[in-house]
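Recall that a protein's primary structure is simply its ordered list of amino acids. Everything else, from secondary elements to tertiary packing, is in principle encoded there. The following example makes that idea concrete.
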Amino acid sequence: MKIALIGYGKMGHEIEKIAIERGNEVVCTIDALINPQDFTDENLQKADVVIEFTRPDAAFDNYMKCFHAGVPVVSGTTGWLSRMPELEKIVKEQGKTFFYASNFSVGVNIFFRLNKFLAKIMNGFKDYDVKMEEIHHTQKLDKPSGTAKTLADDLVSILDSKKSWVIDTTPKEGEINIDCIREEAVPGTHTVHYFSDVDDIEMTHTAHSRKGFALGAVLAAEFLCGKPAGMYGMDDMLKF
């Protein structure tokens, strides 16, 4: 499989390494700070699929350029999801192929499923409240992380007592607070914390490196290659 990478920072380099180890070919690397002039249809069309990890403010336009070139896109950029309905409409009406995940780690996606399972249990125990914490490296631009948003949205959809989430504040009734912490050299840690007067229940996922995210992105690209047009995600690939 031939891959084009958009975004060639630390994650892009890790994706390139794993893609090559798995027998794929990286035919093009594009970075806004290094070689934006190479972001052309001609270069994109050398690839079977594009993997995009960039900035929230650049992601949507990047997708449109890839769609114009007729190349399927795998993206892990977070912070742009207010435009997801617009993108879904374009994919459907124009026959494009797009794979999105807020987190490509297989372990995190297991964590997502466990979060839903535990929330369904805890919904029957009204003495417990819930809060969340996410810790990322200081270069993380969006707050909360896409992973934290997914976890919180799932809690809101399941827990009858919760209607929304907030960040870094004292929550009002019906809200879940997410403490967003930024520290040097932290790939990502997420905790869902149920608490009561008598005890606490915590569920935590801790990433040790970017490797799990990068491997998941390459697996997604391999999965997407040759697929019919449409929207895809980790549930489609992992078949939980």
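The radius of gyration is 19 Å. The mean pLDDT is 95.
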